C-alpha cells in the first residue's frame, strides 16, 4: 500500500500530511511533484492544503492545469482513491471531480479554529471505521470554505448520500452557529458519485496526534488504510 | 551639484557629508550619495543606538551567532539550532496597514531562511490606538489581515503575540514581527561574499521603484509632509516568497552556495556592500542585468529600491548551473549580475559606464556613532506619583466588568483566529496560553516563545519597564514549564534627537541588561525603531522582548486553563500594595500614572524556578502568571479558558488596599491549581525553593468569587464575565 | 490589443463582499446605494490579433481560467 | 442608475495576482498574452440621481471606500 502526497508550488500542508502518513501511521508514502506525468503506482493520492499558485486567481484554479493533475483525473476516473484536504478540496472542485464551488467565508475573514463535524455516511473508503452520526473535532484553516452548489445539484448529492461531513455543534446538532464559514447545508466534506474521491475543508492531519489537541482526524486515515488492506 | 537641499533630502548632515568625501577620497555622485544615505540612515547604521546596545549581554555557551547577522542562533542540541529575530514594520503599516504588515512578515521570514533555517513560527506584537476611533479599527483590521494574508499563505504558523491599546499609538501604530526557525547546526549560512571570481546571483521578484527611501523614511519623523515622503508602497507576494524559501533551502541543503543575503530595507545596496564588507572582499555588478519591472529605472533607483521577495546569492563558481537548476525547478530565475572581487570596492556598472565606485568599508562600518544628549523627561516627576490616590470603588463587580472590557485585557481570538496557527503541525499549545509551545518533530523536545512589553511601565519608569519586560516574558515561559535560552528585542521609541527620548532609551537598555544578566540569558539580536513620532508626539517607549525557551520533555507542560473542579488554588509569590501604572488605573480610573510595580529579580527567578520544577514533576493542573488586570483577572482568565468554564472561590488575607489586591500588578506572581493529592508535594517543593505558598481557595462552581478575610468582594457568573471578555473586540469591529 | 474581462458572481450566488461594501457606504451616509456586487476585472494585453481571433480566444480563456462557470459569469470588451 | 467602478493597482505597483494568471496562461499555451493586471469591479445600483450628482458621488465613494488611493486607481462608467 502506497500513498502519494502532491506538491504544487504554494502547497504548505504537504509535509504535515506526509509526516502523518509516514511517521504517525507508518505507511509507505511518497511526494508527487506537480510537473511529473506519473503517479508512481500509489494507491491513494492526497492533495494537501496550502495556497497553490498563491491562490491569487481563485483557490485551486491554477493547480488544476498541472501535468500531474491530468494523471490524477485519470486515476480517479478509474476508481483510484483521492483525498483532497482544504486547498486540495478546492482543486478537486475546480477539476470538477466534485460538484460545486467555494466562496469566501461568510464573515469575510480567514478562519483557523477547531470545529465539530458530524459524520453522515460511513459506507466509504474514507469513513468506514466511523459510525454514522459520530462527531469529530478537527481544525479548519481557510479563507474560502463557504461551499456553494446550485439547488438541483444539492438535491442530487443529498439523494446520492454524497455528503460525508457537516459542521455541527459538539453534540451533533446542526446549527447556523456551528456553520462557521456559511457553507450550504453545513457541508464540510463531500464524495463523488463513484465513492472514491473525497474533498474536505477540515484538516485531519492536524488532528492525528494527542499533542496537537485532538486525535479525531485519525479515523479518516485509519479508514483508508483499512480499505486498502 | 550636491547642495544643502539634496543633503537634507537624503537625511545626511553636512558633517556626515564631509566625512564621506574624506573616506572615499572624492565627491560622491548622486547614486553614491544615495547609497550612503541609506546605509548611514538610523535604520541601517544604528548610529544613535550603537553605543548603548553594546551594553546588552550577548555571551552564552550555546550562542552560535549573537547580534550582527540577520538573526541570532542558539544551539539546542541534537545537531539543531534555533534561529530567531524580531523586526518592526511600524511606518509602512501606518501608511498602508495591510501591505505594511504583510511585507513586515515577508521581511522577517527572509531574515530567518537566509541563514539556512526553516521558519516554523511567527509571532506578532501589536500596538494600536483605542478602538472607538474608526481610523484605529481600520488600521488594526488591515494589519491583522496583512499578517494573516502573508503568513497563512506561505505556511508558517502565527502561533501567538500580544496586542495593547493606548492613545499614543493612534497616529503611530506598532507592528513588530518575530520569527523563529530551525536549522541543522552544520548547515548555517551567512552573508558572505568570499572567493574572488565567484558569481553574484540575483533571485526572486523583479526590481521596481518600490519603497525608494523606505529606510530613510523610517529614520525621520512623520510631519505635515507625510504625503510627499511617502515612497511607493510595496505589495507583498507571499507566493513568490514561498518559492524563494524552498529554493534557497534547497541550494543550501545541497551546499551549492558561498553566502546569501536578503534584499530588504536598502535592497541591492545593503546586500552587496554588506556581503563584501563581511568578507573583506569587493563586489562588482552590472545593473543592466538586474531584472526590472518598470521601464527607464535609473541606477540610483535600482540600487535603492526596496522591492520585496529578492535575494542576493554568491554561488560556488563551479556550481552555478546547479544553483540555476534548483531555482528553475521552483519557476524562479537566478540571474548572474556580477562577481566577487578582492579589491574591497563596490563597483556598479550600467549602460557601459561605471556609475558607482566606492570602498565598501566606509559604507558599512564607518558611519559615525552618536552619543546623543539625554535628559530626564519633564513629565516623569509629576506622573510617577499617585497623588491623590484614587477612590476605592464601591462595586467591585462593576470595576471587574469594566476591566474585562478593556481591549488590552479582553480575548484576542478575533485576531488569532485569522492566523493559521496550526500549519506545520508543531503547535502544542494553542494561542491564548502564556507562551507558545512548538514541538520539534522527531525529538522529545519543544521550544517555547513569549513576547512581552508593557509600554506604560516603560513610560513611567523606563528601567523598571525594561526589566519587567524581560522578567515577564521569562515568567510566561515558566508557566508552560520552559526555561529561557535566548532573547531578541525590538526597541520602539520616538525621535532620538530629543534628549528625553534618549534618556528613556538608555534606561530601558539598562533594565533589559540587568534582567538578562539575572536570568543569565544572552541577547542574540533585535531591532531599533526610532522616530515613532507623528506631528511632534512621541509614542511611549515600547521595548518588546522576545524570549525563547526550551522544554526537554514536551509532555511535561501545562496551560492556564482550569482542568477540573475541586483543585486547590495557590499563589507562587506575594501580593503587594501596588496600584501604579496598572491597567485598572488606566481603564477604570482613567489615570496613567503612579509608581511602576517593583521587581526583585532574585525573587522573580526563584518563583519561576519553582513553577518550572512543579510542572516538570507533574504537580500542576494549571499555571498562569499575574499581569495586566492583576490577580482577579488572572483567575478569571483561567476560568474563561477552561473548556467547561469552571469557576472558583477564593478568600484573600493580605492587609493591603483591596483594589490593589484585586487588580494591582505586583510582579513575580503565578497562580496555579493543583489536585488535592499534589498539594503536599507542591508545598514541600516550595519550601525547598525557600518560597512560601499561599493557598487562595478552590476551583469549582459557575461563578467567579473573591472574598477578603471572609467578606465578599467580587461575585459574578463565569459566563457573564466570559461574554464581556470574549465579545469586546468583535463587538468593536461590528460597530463599523 | 487590449482587452478587459469582467468576472462577477452569478445572480444566484451570494456576494458577501459586495454586501459589506454596501453596508460600509450606508454607514458613511451614502443611503442612495441600493445594491453593490463585487467582481474581478482583468486587463489583458495581447499580441496583435484579429478581432475575430480575439473573439475566439478571450471567451476560451475566460471560461477555462479566469472565471469558474459554476459560480461566475463573465463579459469582455476589446478596448484597443 | 447603474454604475460600474473599476479599481486596479497603480501601474508602478507590483501586481502578483496578474503575474500569476499570466504565467498560468503561458503554461496553457496562450503565449500571446503579453501582460495581465487583475483588479476589482463594483457594479453599483444607485437611486436615480442626475448624471451631475453621480459624477460627484461616485469618485467620492471610490476614493473613500472602493479603492485604496495609496496603491490603487479607479475609473468608472455610468451604464444605465
Ligand atoms: N535592540 C537590539 N538589541 C540587540 N541587537 C540589536 C538590536 N537592534 C538591532 N540589533 C542587531 O543589529 C544588527 C543590525 O540590525 P538590522 O539592521 O535590523 O538588521 P537587518 O535589517 O539586516 O535585519 C542585527 O544583528 C540586530 O540583531
Ligand atoms: Mg536582514
What does this structure look like?
The complex is a heterotetramer, with one copy of chain A (229 residues), one copy of chain B (736 residues) and two copies of chain C (80 residues). With 229 residues, chain A is α/β, with parallel strands linked by helices. Chain A is built from five helices and eleven strands. In chain A, helix 2 (67-77) links the parallel strand 3 and strand 4. The longest helix of chain A is centred in the N-terminal third of the chain and has 11 residues, at 14-24. Chain A is globular, with a radius of gyration of 16 Å. The model of chain A has no long low-confidence stretch (mean pLDDT 97). Chain B has 27 helices and 28 strands. Chain B has 736 residues and is α+β, with helices and mostly antiparallel strands. In chain B, the strands form five sheets. In chain B, strands 8-10-7-11-9-12-13 form a seven-stranded mixed sheet. Chain B has a seven-stranded mixed sheet with strand order 23-25-22-26-24-27-28, sandwiched between helices. In chain B, helix 24 packs across helix 27. Chain B is globular and about 85 Å long. Chain B is 36% helix and 24% strand. Chain C has one domain: Phosphoribosylformylglycinamidine synthase subunit PurS (Mth169, Chain: A), CATH 3.30.1280.10. In chain C, 35% of the residues lie in helices and 36% in strands. In chain C, strands 2-1-3 form a three-stranded antiparallel sheet. The longest helix of chain C has 16 residues, at 51-66. The model of chain C has no long low-confidence stretch (mean pLDDT 94). The chains are: A alpha/beta (229), B alpha+beta (736), C alpha+beta (80). Adenosine-5'-diphosphate binds at residues 44, 53, 56, 67-70, 111, 265, 489, 491, 523, 525-528 of chain B.
